[in-house]
Amino acid sequence: MPTYNRADLAFERGEGAWLWTGDGRRFLDFGSGIATASIGHAHPHLVQAIAEQAARVMHTSNLYRIPQAERLAARLVETSFADSVFFCNSGAEANEGMIKAVRKYHAEQGHPERFVTICFEGAFHGRTLATLAATGNEKYLAGFGPPVQGFKHVPFGNMNALRDAIDGTTAAIMVEPIQGEGGVRPASLEFLRQLRAAADEFGLLLALDEVQTGMGRSGKLWAHQWAGIEPDVMSSAKGIGGGFPLGAILAKERVAQYLKPGTHGSTYGGNPLACAAGNAVLDVILAPGFLDGVDRVARHLWRGMLDLAHRHPAVVEGVQGAGLLLGLKLRPEISNGEMQNAAVAEGLLTVAAGMNVLRLAPPLIITEAEADEALSLLERTCLRCTPSQARDAAK
Ligand SMILES: Cc1ncc(COP(=O)(O)O)c(C=O)c1O
């Protein structure tokens, strides 16, 4: 179906941060399949884990125990705030389940009227009916009938508006620590702390969408850890499977306890193959020093991007984001689609984001040399996009 405006590129193979088309052209992949190929393409450990598991058993269903899922859940619990994990297949499915979990929590507490989740303008939570309503973007909602009830939106970063929106129907606050699709806009750490405090004050659940920001992308395993807070429930997907479809809801026991048999489910969710992939990805990300390396290369890239922005004021307005989720905010006369195409022409893959931002979300395994290579390709991309008057003025 014509759901995507696809670039006329088809990749035949990948290795680390690089992709090759069938006709032999090589691209530096700073999009990672939209922040998903977290440990790069064809990582030998991930390839081996998937191949070995596929040869043994791929799918058995949740009617039986799944040791690979039990192991992955135990490791996620050990390395997060959570007591319990539910596996699914995508970010939207994880968020859909997270929304159900917060509603169920209040219903079981004797307050079924508390079913409203407060979300933020500029959010992106997925394409199912409930996650579209949580996203709240009129453009995405148009044509799909009445939006699912139970979502309110307030400006991102505005504590007064958030507090004003809380009433007797409020169940939760749902937020991305860095708005990804919305324009690579980080919540300030103080804002995240204030959300935690407001949730505590009003008996709400804090539900974090770490689909894009989690699994090491920020330089910590979970982006909220930079703020020193814990959510009550959190969604994960994208990088968690390293390119294999996998999603998860992580929750405190006080939330998870109510998701009893019959309340929620997924045929594929947490199958042996997906969880073998998830365990292999975790092996890499939790290896000693790996996240420090992500932080280091991210800071190196950030400095280079600031420099680039400084040298190309006719194209770039600023740099935003955190960790390896970075954005170049472009000047209004340069569209991010145009810049994305220009980057492709230079051999660099990026992803457009909202608010005219060009997003960089490279695999977490990139080296400083690869970051430098991306910067020099971006340099050439900026030159391609520089309006002719600005070019003439600089001569
Ligand atoms: C923050 C966030 N939540 C949810 C989703 C939806 O994930 P999926 O496309 O896997 O359903 C995305 C996808 O871009 C996302 O960035």
From TrEMBL:
Check the record and name the InterPro entries matching this protein. Answer: AcOrn/SuccOrn_fam, Aminotrans_3, Aminotrans_3_PPA_site, Class-III_PLP-dep_AT, PyrdxlP-dep_Trfase, PyrdxlP-dep_Trfase_major, PyrdxlP-dep_Trfase_small
As for family, the record states: Belongs to the class-III pyridoxal-phosphate-dependent aminotransferase family. ArgD subfamily.
Q: Which domain of life is it from?
A: Bacteria
Quote a single Gene Ontology cellular component term: cytoplasm
The record's comment on cofactor binding reads: Binds 1 pyridoxal phosphate per subunit.
- Pathways per UniProt: Amino-acid biosynthesis; L-arginine biosynthesis; N(2)-acetyl-L-ornithine from L-glutamate: step 4/4
Which gene name belongs to this protein?
Answer: argD
Q: Which residues bind N(2)-acetyl-L-ornithine?
A: 127, 266
Something else the entry says is: May also have succinyldiaminopimelate aminotransferase activity, thus carrying out the corresponding step in lysine biosynthesis.
Question: Gene3D superfamilies recorded for this chain?
Answer: Aspartate Aminotransferase, domain 1, Type I PLP-dependent aspartate aminotransferase-like (Major domain)
- Natural source organism: Belnapia rosea
Recorded GO terms, molecular function?
identical protein binding; N2-acetyl-L-ornithine:2-oxoglutarate 5-aminotransferase activity; pyridoxal phosphate binding
Q: What is its EC number?
A: 2.6.1.11
In the record, N6-(pyridoxal phosphate)lysine modifications are located at 238
Q: What name does the UniProt record give this protein?
A: Acetylornithine aminotransferase
